[in-house]
Amino acid sequence: MKEWIKKGIVLVIAAALLGGAWQYRQQCMTEEIAGKIIRFHVRANSDTQADQELKLKVRDAVGAYMQPRLSGISDVAASRRVVKENLPGIERTASSVIAKEGYTYEVAADLTVTDFPEKTYGDYTFPAGTYEALEVVIGEGRGHNWWCVMYPNLCFFNSVYQVVDEEAEESLKKTLTPEEYKSLMEEKNYKVRFALAERIQEIFENL
Fold it and tell me: Fewer Cβ within 10 Å of end Cβ, the chain: N or C?
């Protein structure tokens, strides 16, 4: 067998092994992060402009209601208890906003386990996966959703929900391991792919 064919076979095997190991590591990392996080999920009644605007008003009201109640919480178990204890208050808060805006939609709040897509908040990109979440459903809940991170609190710092302040950053650092925290940075995928390509090139050159 020609030498370049042998090298090609070894390269393919090396790429498959390294790629599989990387995917397994990323999956484990996602599960570890998800176990320390509580997301915030608001589902609009429909995709009409009015229902989408109502969704954002409910989001803001529930966020303002929960922010002081979660202040100072240092672990996900305590956050879970606080969320569960305040589900009736969350529903009352949302219902008040809905009624004020002239609607009669029912609203339901619950702590659920939900699949989330990859989402970026400020400098942090949370991987797609299954997370525990405070879910608020308005009416039929058939409209576009809105997501954020309730614990550690990354949701409630400005009107567009894209700024993460220093207190939130410190809370996130305390919640996650250094490796988990680093993995949330936006450019991680490019760095990992580059490192993987470098490693494969090293293997090829050493054959």
Answer: N
For residue range 20-52, what is the model confidence (pLDDT) as tens digits?
544 545 556 677 888 888 999 999 999 999 999
Provide the pLDDT for residue 199: 53
| Beta-sheet strands, E only, within 117-191 | 119-121, 124-126, 129-138, 145-151
Name residue, tokens 């599960």.
31
d(CA 56, CA 59): 5
CA distances from 198 to 25, 194, 203, 205 (A): 18, 6, 9, 11
- Asked if omega into 88 is within 30° of 0 (cis), the reply is no
Query: What is the residue range of 69's domain?
Result: 37-175
For tokens 């606080």, name the residue.
Answer: 82
Is there a contact between 19 and 196 (Cβ–Cβ < 8 Å)?
yes
